[in-house]
Design brief:
The chain contains eleven helices and twelve strands. Helix 1 packs across helix 3, helix 2 packs parallel to helix 3 and helix 4 runs antiparallel to helix 5. The chain is an alpha/beta fold and about 325 residues long.
Length: about 325
C-alpha cells in the first residue's frame, strides 16, 4: 500500500528526481493531460529531463498543452531510461492502458484526486476533495517554489475547467474559483480556453450527440436516464474519442433525472460507462461495485460483454443505490 505524502514531502521528492517519466491515463482528458504537461513544463524549467507518456494519442484539441515541444511525448522509449516514474490523475493501474501496463509496479509517486485510488504507487499525494487534479498540482508546484508561467497556467486551467464542466458540475468549490483566479493572474487565457473547449463543436460531435439522444432510455420512473453509442454509431458519425468527453453530461441534464448513464462501446467491444448523479446519489458507489471508481458525483467503469448485459449490470447497481437513498430519507 502506498505511503501517503504531504505537499512538502512530495515537493521534496520531485525536487531531487531525475529523468522523470509522467504517466497519464488512457483515453486522456483535460485533467490528466493538463496535470501531466503542467508538471512537465515546471520540471523542465528546473533543467530536468522529463517526458510524458500515454497509451493513446494526444487528442489534437489538447495539442497546445505541449507548448511547441516536439520531444515531450514518450513514444516507444528508445534511448530513454526513466529513473523516476510519476502518475497523474490515475486512480488504478487498469487505467494505464496497454502501452503503459508494464509500469504498473514501477510508479514511485502518484498525484491524484480520486478517493477510489488503489494505492498502487510507492508514494501517494492524494486530495479527494479537489475538484480537479490540476487544483492539487498548482499547490504542489507552489510548494516546490516554482514560477507559474503562462504555459503552465494554461495547462492547469485546462484540467480545472474540463473536470468541473466550466464550473457547472457539483464538484466545483470555492477553491476551484480561487484556483482559476490565480491561474488567470499568471497569464492563463481563460476566455480563449473556455471558448475552445466548450463553445465549439465539430459537425461529427453534433452527429454523435444526435445518435446518442436517439438511443435515450428512461428507467425507475424517470429517475435514471441512459444514452449509448455503439461502435457503429461512433464510426458512422466520424467523431474523435476526445470529442465525446462532455457527452456524459447530457442524460443528467434532463429535469427529474438523478442518475445519468452514458455507455460508449470501445474498439475491443467493451463498454465504457460514465455515471453522473445528483447530490443525493453516490456515483462512485455504483461504479465501484462494477470494478470502477471515481468521485461521489462523477464516476465510471468498463464492462465486457454486449450492450444488453452492460445495461443490465449497471442498472442493477443504480437500482440498489436509489433504494439506499430512499431508506435514508
Amino acid at each position: 500500500m502506498a505511503i501517503q505524502l504531504t505537499l512538502e514531502q512530495a515537493a521534496q521528492f520531485l525536487q531531487t528526481a531525475q529523468d522523470v517519466l509522467i504517466l497519464t491515463h488512457k483515453s486522456p482528458d483535460g485533467d490528466t493531460l493538463g496535470s501531466g504537461f503542467g508538471l512537465l513544463h515546471a520540471l523542465r524549467g528546473m533543467g530536468k529531463r522529463v517526458w510524458l507518456a500515454c497509451s493513446d494519442s494526444i487528442p489534437p484539441r489538447y495539442a497546445y498543452l505541449m507548448g511547441g515541444l516536439t520531444d515531450a511525448v514518450w513514444e516507444d522509449g528508445t534511448g530513454i531510461v526513466p529513473q523516476t516514474v510519476v502518475a497523474v490523475d490515475i486512480a488504478d493501474t487498469k487505467l494505464f492502458g496497454e502501452k503503459l501496463c508494464g509500469f504498473a509496479d514501477k510508479v514511485q509517486l502518484c498525484i491524484d484526486h480520486h478517493g477510489s485510488n488503489t494505492g498502487y504507487a510507492q508514494y501517494l499525494l492524494l486530495r479527494p476533495n479537489a475538484a480537479a487534479n490540476c487544483e492539487l498540482m498548482l499547490d504542489l508546484l507552489e510548494a516546490m517554489g516554482l514560477p507559474l508561467t503562462e504555459q503552465i497556467a494554461n495547462c492547469l486551467y485546462t484540467g480545472l475547467v474540463t473536470d468541473t464542466g466550466c464550473f457547472r458540475f457539483a464538484n466545483t468549490t470555492a477553491r476551484s474559483h480561487i484556483t482559476a483566479a490565480w491561474l488567470m493572474e499568471a497569464g492563463g487565457r481563460a476566455s480563449e480556453l473556455n471558448a475552445r473547449l466548450f463553445e465549439s463543436k465539430k459537425p461529427q460531435r453534433v452527429e454523435a450527440e444526435r445518435l446518442a439522444l436517439n438511443n435515450l432510455e428512461y428507467y425507475f420512473d424517470g429517475r435514471c436516464a441512459l444514452i449509448y453509442l455503439t461502435r457503429e454509431d461512433i464510426l458512422s458519425s466520424g467523431v474523435a474519442p476526445s470529442d465525446l468527453e462532455d457527452l456524459t453530461s447530457l442524460p443528467r441534464a434532463i429535469e427529474g433525472v438523478e442518475v445519468g448513464l452514458t455507455l460508449r462501446q470501445q474498439p475491443g467491444g467493451s463498454y465504457k460507462i460514465s455515471v453522473r448523479t445528483t447530490d443525493a446519489v453516490d456515483a462512485c458507489a455504483i461504479a465501484k461495485r462494477l470494478g470502477g471508481g471515481g468521485h461521489v458525483r462523477a464516476a465510471g467503469c468498463e464492462l465486457m460483454g454486449n450492450l444488453d448485459n452492460a445495461k443490465a449490470a449497471v442498472l442493477a447497481e443504480v437500482k440498489k443505490e436509489l433504494a439506499r437513498c430512499e431508506q435514508k430519507e
